[in-house]
Amino acid sequence: MRASLNARLAGCKKGMVLIVITSNVVSSVFASRECGLLLGDAREVLRTLADDSVDCTVTSPPYYSGRRHVGDTVLEIGSEKTVEEYVEALASVGKELYRVTRPTGSYWLNLDDKCERKEWLGIPWRVAFAMREIGWKIRSEVIWHKPTHVRNAAKDRLTPAHELLFYFVKSKDAYYDMDAIRRPSSPPIWGKNGVVKTRRGSVPTDVWTLQIEDSTSPENPYAAFPEALVELPIRATCPRGGTVLDPFVGSGTTAVVALRLGRKAIGIDASADCLEFTKKRILEVRGQPATPRQTPFNHAVKVSHGCMR
Predict the structure, then answer these.
(1) Which domains does the chain have, with CATH numbers?
(2) How many other CB atoms are found less than 10 A from the CB of residue 82?
(3) pLDDT of residue 76
């Protein structure tokens, strides 16, 4: 199941198209010119990626549970004993993301809170402030409203029906294509002298109402967030042909949407099963049949920072 978790990455370098990885990388589950899927702990795998090589990161890390899963041999993010340790773990990921992100790049982080002993822990904003300490700038806080999602209804507090999505940037000059995400404009109107005027369309607000995508297919047992939650950030903050990263790729929604929108994708996950499912989805998007294993990226010269320890 997870025998490859401790496998060493042989090395990598920044290629003209995407991160190029040597052919003997056992942690590479899938590789092509447009997409790469890497198996391992995000904190370790990210260290193998080149500086300033990613345009946009969109991710949703594991929720804080405060307990380890039965059979785990590696302390995964989300299983920390305290919320402080959880925040520290996500900060370590954020630090590596800051390094691999281009100066004009962005980082979209979806987080949920947890209630313990009748008190919310404030996890999303704890993490957001930790990212500020690293150097990330909070550009927007998006409320993801889940209209029909009822979770853990309590007798003495309101029913939670939202999560937060933070939009971080490295600099004030971060890439942002507002026209790519404008809502459709109203029909053209006739102006003076018969000139047709077309309105540009409205800008989305920071409250997004999107239904959670619960899978009803036995082939997809993994939780997936809505494609629309990923599509807007990618359209707005990653140029066409740019690279989108998800260090907790899970069922592959970020990678699939990125490829569909004409971007490249890098996905990382600690679960081999999740990556195999993601690979299947990617091959379906590309119109190719799934095979047991794909050919790795082209050969590359090893670099000093390209090994897991």
Answers:
(1) 12-182+200-285 (3.40.50.150)
(2) 11
(3) 82
- Whether the per-residue pLDDT at 27 is higher than 90: the answer is no
pLDDT reading at 46 higher than 50:
yes
Q: pLDDT for 253-306, tens place per residue?
A: 999 999 999 999 999 999 999 999 999 999 998 876 544 333 222 222 222 222
- Return the ∠ at Cα 167 (arms to 259 and 95), rounded to 5°: 90
Residues 110, 154: Cα–Cα separation, whole Å = 24
Separation in Å, CA 83 to CA 43, 79, 80, 115, 162: 18, 10, 7, 11, 20
Please tell me whether residue 263 adopts helix, strand or coil conformation.
coil
Question: Residue 23: left if φ>0, alpha if ψ -120 to 50, beta else—which one?
Answer: alpha
Q: What angle do CA 165, 166, 167 make, to 5 degrees?
A: 120
